[in-house]
Amino acid sequence: MNLESSTVTVSKSPEEVFNFLTNVENFEQLMPESIQKFEMLNDTRFLFQLKGMPEIVLEKKETEEFSKVILGAASDKLPFTLTANIEAQDEQNSNVQLVFDGEFNAMMAMMIKKPLQNFINTLSDNITKL
User: Please, which domain of life does this record's source organism belong to (predicted)?
Assistant: First the structure.
């Protein structure tokens, strides 16, 4: 299952956006209001839980300096990645798009598609407020 946010403009340079997103502790600021739990596990991992959803542990998997940050599920039970693609608009502005890619059976995908799309859209909207 592949879900994408719309591309949003952030009033920060690609370097500033990249540095913000590579510090996983900052994801707490991007979470929706329905967050019930957020806990740092170490410098590259955090746990979060949204209302009505199970706890999920995300970890920083890969980065491409100033252009991409990839987070992934720490558990093989729900294998997925969340990628932030960062593109320079000019020296002071960046375009950011979030891409979710996961492998789920058809029933699971049907149940989680809308909540996941809403979650990704909220993260994307909150990035614009940096």
Answer: Bacteria
Say what the pTM is. Answer: 0.93
What's the rounded Cα separation, in Å, for the pair 21 and 127? 9
Q: pLDDT tens, 53-85?
A: 889 999 999 999 999 999 999 988 778 999 999
Query: In this structure, is the dihedral angle defined by the CA atoms of residues 97, 19, 77 and 33, taken in order, positive or negative?
Result: negative
100: which 2 tokens? 């979710």
What is the C-alpha separation between 66 and 13, in angstroms, rounded? 9
- Domain with 54, as residue range(s), is 2-127
Number of domains observed in the structure of the chain: 1
- Residue 17 has a pLDDT of 97
Q: Which residues contact 64 (CB under 8 A, 6 or more apart)?
A: none
CATH (domain of 35):
3.30.530.20
